[in-house]
Amino acid sequence: ARNWRSGSYELDLVSWDGDELVFVEVRLRGKGSLASPEASMTPAKCRSVVKAARAYLSASGEWDVPCRFDLVCVRDAGATFELDYYRHVFDISEIMGSGDAAWQPW
Description:
By secondary structure, the protein is an alpha+beta fold.
């Protein structure tokens, strides 16, 4: 899926890597931007992506599928773009805290 939406939730990309469902957040920064794309992936943004992933799993009925969260950082380099791809960029328990219910019930 690309630009999947449900209410206020949005996922940039949802894809498969073998038997693992991957939620990919894409962060773009223009040429001369003071902040890096990596720095824009704040804890609040991570929590938002997890909530969107929950909505996606609920809508698709795929709660039993292993999932991970990846990040694509795109930098405007003038005539081209530079890309960095990061796998498994955060752990759910670190982002949502220990008081949050399990995000996938397995």
